[in-house]
TrEMBL record:
The keyword Hydrolase applies. Pfam families: DEAD, DEAD_assoc, Helicase_C, WHD_Lhr. InterPro entries: ATP-dep_Helicase, DEAD/DEAH_box_helicase_dom, DNA/RNA_helicase_DEAH_CS, Helicase_ATP-bd, Helicase_C-like, Lhr-like, Lhr-like_DEAD/DEAH_assoc, Lhr_WH_dom. Keywords: ATP-binding, DNA damage, DNA repair, DNA-binding, Helicase, Hydrolase, Isomerase, Nucleotide-binding. PROSITE patterns: DEAH_ATP_HELICASE, HELICASE_ATP_BIND_1, HELICASE_CTER. SUPFAM superfamilies: P-loop containing nucleoside triphosphate hydrolases. It comes from Salinadaptatus halalkaliphilus. This is DEAD/DEAH box helicase. One of its GO terms (biological process) is DNA repair. Residues 36-214 form the Helicase ATP-binding domain.
Length: 943
């Protein structure tokens, strides 16, 4: 360490240096050495370093020092520390309170759960440092007393600024900071960020285009990551029996178990909450000290596992992306990533959580499951070491954010000239190029919706009767989504929830999806009750999930490198090399063991052996079998989604019917009518004008539920939805018709193109095909690589004995159902009981008859009908049905009672079930479940 390195703390005053000694900070960490000098000089600074490397103290030590200088801290708020997660609020307060107490500076937290009493205290006597969220800052900007306190702000620290820069929350915060600047004048801006590919751009986002010092730690050189696909061992077969799964999945569990056991404290990252739960249930079965942590768990459950991990009670923590951020869980010495992390930034953020004692190397293992997964992980691992990181993808010009901020500005300032609103918004970096005409269109829309009042004569804005209510109902840019409960038809129990986005965009009866680590088929959707009824898939081997969860998109650069690996392997395979030889060559460039590389290259070897063309970075392979067409294209999610929508729209137009589409980073899979020839697909790719891609895709979106869903969310931000909605839910067609040509429609389209599509890159693919720079070849039948897309998403899914467990669940539920037994002979005896208490041959204790009707527990009207001396037509039908059921019970005893206890199974269907003459009890219950599913699917017709 040089004298300059040691000199970082000399930029701080004596009081803060004394606190450093008391706290045990003898030498500065790497980010402190780099960043404290410009921060102490008051420069706007972006600090880029891994989580756990002392970024918080890097930012706050110079801030504390400045607050103590001169006459001491101001009367109002001196510094704001803004974090995107409430959980980080708690951590920051815990970390900063010690410094505050030692330095005699007040530190407090404010967010949505802060009590009214505490808020009042903060307004009366502002703390020197306030830890808060972007949304709470929005609310503070409109409070009169709080605005007085904000006048004194001299420093704002934005934690996890990379996360905010890529979201609408960040765009909203960018304007919020300019509104704060209108109150407080210039203040120092400090951003704390994970590694990003465009630090200068993130710095400009932070400062609103003003000068910004960038201080970055080279994370890649301190990352030691290995890619491993587990080999199935003899012990895995025994483990598979304990876990009721297959040996391959058991090998994944075993490898993760061994990696956790080999280290003191391990974070195990997964890409979806479903996978976290599925893995977690298997570790629970093995009684291993590994907890589960994700955003759907309650706050109490999350805090509990965080604390148990921190104290060493848990050796491992299964977690999703929320743990990428700086939640303090103590020291982590290893990170496991289950399946490809999909992006370089995510790998660096996740692996970067391990090993930060004086700049130690961060170690991690990516556990992969199939060839695509392994090649992708290898590419990402290499790119992470080389520092080839994706950009942050800032939301440029989000119109609904402008609509959200204008009422807040007017509410806080009162009567405001439009030019002042334009000036404040235009200073925020994401809105630096927004046209004045666009802002005026938004103002006009807000005026129409009575959110603000626009005086055209004086060109000024005033509050309306709806301004205050709008501002406080729309503090967040995170859209409110309804949650649908998911109920298992077999047990009637709730198995989880689905977001409205999923239900609108995907769900319909018959579709298959993954939840809780298992596969389910949708039977019924009830929008009024917000419920989805599902049935488990008994034979997952024969099913492909239509939807496996919100996927992290793989960038084009990563997918292209996978294509380049194939390109390198192809001539060697053609010359006689095998998978093992290719793997050995790749080991010089990529961090993986011999088995992993050989297994991955086995996919390429199978492709070569089948004498089919190899899809590469520069070669697309179009293959067909029946109605299924697969375009192998190594371009990542966004480009393939764009090309897929283009093909789907134009081929559907030719056929006069819809074309099904599924994409992954390496394939576009289409289900086409028989009238569509392979040559039609080639013609679209080779003759469509690249300049027309955006227009064609936008036209196709008009028929997509995804656009209607975004439109509904965006128009709610403008306060417009209620104007057209009336008393009921608006149809997609009416919504499109009402909003096309408005700022809401423009924003919904902009958002889809920004988040999901890549028009320029997709157009470049068409240009390459048409110029000959890219090659496309066709093949009859599906190739080994083409078929591998269908195996995605099935790891950790339903166990081998799932069918048995489902049948047992159905049996248990039916045996515990309550029924009414009624004697149809004398009509006098009636008893309510559970099915399991019914004797094998029920009979009436009054008259001894065995003609006993089995009725639903709420069927008192049937009892009255049987007992009535004179019956109307409806009562005659009830009586006839009860008599038929009683006859069935007389002939088949308790078996008939069980069958008729099932949902939608009356005497007629019960007789059909019984007449199948099933000797196996499981088969009997399976027949019942089949009838229940059929009833759930067709219930709306009968009702």
């Amino acid at each position: 360490m040089t004298e300059g390195d040691l000199a970082a703390f000399t930029h701080l005053g004596g009081t803060v240096r004394g606190a450093l000694s008391e706290r045990g900070f003898s030498t500065p960490t790497a980010p402190q050495r780099l960043a404290i000098p410009p921060l102490a000089a008051g420069e706007n600074t972006l600090v880029i370093a891994p989580t756990g490397s002392g970024k918080t103290e890097t930012a706050m030590l110079p801030v504390f020092d400045h607050l103590l200088a001169g006459d001491g801290p101001p009367e109002g708020f001196g510094a704001l520390y803004v974090t995107p997660l409430r959980a980080l609020n708690r951590d920051m307060r815990d970390r900063l309170e010690w410094w505050g107490e030692y330095l005699d500076l007040a530190v407090d937290v404010r967010h949505g759960d802060t009590t009214q009493y505490q808020r009042g205290k903060q307004a009366e006597n502002p703390p020197d440092v306030l830890v808060t969220t972007p949304e709470t800052l929005q609310a503070m900007l409109t409070g009169e007393r709080l605005r007085d306190g904000l006048d004194d702000v001299s420093h704002v620290v934005i934690d996890e600024v990379h996360e905010l820069a890529a979201s609408k929350r960040g765009a909203q915060l960018a304007i919020g900071l300019e509104r704060l600047r209108d109150l407080a004048g210039g203040f120092q801006r400090i951003g704390l960020s994970a590694t990003v590919g465009d630090p200068e751009e993130v710095g400009q986002f932070l400062t609103g285009g003003r000068p910004c010092e960038i201080r970055e730690i080279d994370v890649g050189s301190n990352v030691d990551v290995t890619v491993r696909q587990p080999e199935v061992r003899a012990e895995d077969k025994e483990l598979a029996g304990r876990l009721m799964t297959d040996a391959e999945t058991a090998s994944h569990v075993r490898l993760i178990r061994d990696l956790v056991a080999a280290h003191e404290s391990t974070l195990v990252f997964v890409n979806t909450r479903q996978t976290a739960e599925a893995l977690g249930s298997r570790f629970t079965e093995l009684e291993l000290p590994i907890g589960v942590h994700h955003g759907s768990l309650s706050k109490e459950a999350r805090i509990d596992v965080e604390d148990r991990f921190k104290t060493g009670e848990l050796d491992g923590l299964l977690c999703t992306s929320s743990m990428e951020l700086g939640i303090d869980v103590g020291r982590v010495d290893h990170v496991v990533q289950y399946k490809s992390p999909r992006q370089v930034t995510r790998l660096l953020q996740r692996i970067g959580r391990a090993g930060h004692r004086q700049d130690a190397v961060s170690s991690g293992t990516i556990v992969t499951t199939r060839p695509d997964d392994s090649f992708e992980a290898l590419s990402i691992a290499r790119r992470a070491r080389a520092g080839e990181v994706e950009p942050a993808a800032i939301h440029e010009g989000s119109l609904d954010v402008v609509a959200n901020q204008i009422p807040g500005i007017v509410q806080s300032r009162g009567t405001t000239p439009v030019r002042e609103v334009l000036e404040t918004i235009g200073r925020a970096y994401p809105f630096r190029d927004i046209p004045e005409e666009t802002v005026r269109e938004i103002v006009a829309e807000l005026d129409r919706n009575r959110i603000v009042w626009f005086d055209e004569g004086d060109d000024r804005l005033e509050t309306s009767g709806g301004t205050w209510q709008y501002v406080y109902a729309n503090l967040s840019m995170i859209p409110d989504e309804e949650t649908y409960e998911v109920h298992d038809i077999a047990s009637s129990s709730q198995i989880g929830t689905l977001d409205e986005r999923f239900v609108v965009n995907f769900a319909q009866p018959g579709e298959v999806f993954v939840q809780r680590g298992e596969m389910w088929r949708i039977s019924e959707i009830d929008d009024d009750e917000a419920t989805v009824t599902v049935s488990p898939i008994e034979d997952p081997a024969g099913e492909v999930p239509s939807w496996t969860g919100q996927e992290i998109p793989v960038p084009a650069a990563v997918a292209q490198e996978v294509g380049e690996i194939r390109d390198v392997a192809q001539p060697q395979l053609e010359a006689g090399a095998d998978a093992s030889a290719i793997g050995r060559e790749l080991s010089a460039r990529y961090p993986a063991d011999e088995y992993t590389l050989t297994e991955a290259c086995g996919q390429l070897e199978r492709q070569a052996e089948s004498e089919t063309p190899m899809p590469t970075a520069d070669r697309l392979v179009l293959e067909r079998q029946g109605r299924s067409i697969v375009l192998n294209a190594c371009y990542g999610h966004a480009v393939n989604e764009t090309l897929g929508r283009l093909l789907s729209a134009l081929l559907g137009q030719r056929a006069g019917s819809s074309v099904g589409m599924e994409i992954d980073p390496y394939r576009i899979e289409l289900e086409v009518p028989t009238s569509i020839a392979t040559s039609d697909v080639l013609e679209v790719l080779e003759e469509t004008d690249p300049d027309h891609v955006e227009t064609i895709v936008e036209l196709g979106l008009k028929n997509a539920d995804a656009l209607a869903f975004r439109l509904a969310q965006v128009s709610a931000s403008f306060g417009a939805l209620k104007r057209w909605q009336g008393s009921g839910r608006l149809s997609n067609e009416r919504l499109l018709a009402a909003l096309e040509g408005t700022p809401m429609y423009d924003e919904a389209i902009r958002e889809i193109f920004h988040e999901d599509l890549a028009v320029e890159e997709a157009s470049a693919v068409l240009e390459g095909l048409q110029s000959g720079d890219l090659e496309i070849v066709t093949h009859r039948g599906l190739t080994p690589i083409g078929q591998d897309g269908n195996s995605a998403g099935k790891e950790l899914l339903a166990p081998e004995n799932a069918d048995a467990s489902v049948i047992e669940t159905v049996k248990e539920r039916l045996q515990n159902d309550r029924i009414i037994l009624l004697c149809t002979h004398c009509g006098e005896w009636k008893a309510k009981t559970k099915v399991k208490r019914v004797p094998d041959q029920p009979e009436c204790p009054e008259c001894g008859s065995t003609r006993i009707a089995s009725l639903n527990p709420w069927a008192d009207e049937v009892v009255q009908a049987i007992r009535a001396e004179e019956k109307d037509d409806e009562q005659e039908q009830m009586t006839e049905r009860a008599y038929r059921g009683a006859s069935l019970v007389q002939s088949h005893g308790k078996q008939a009672v069980i069958a008729m206890a099932a949902r939608g199974v009356g005497p007629h269907n019960a007789a059909r079930i019984i007449n199948n003459l099933r000797e196996d009890e499981a088969e009997f219950y399976r027949d019942i479940l089949t009838r229940e599913r059929e009833y759930a699917r067709t219930k709306s017709f009968w009702e």
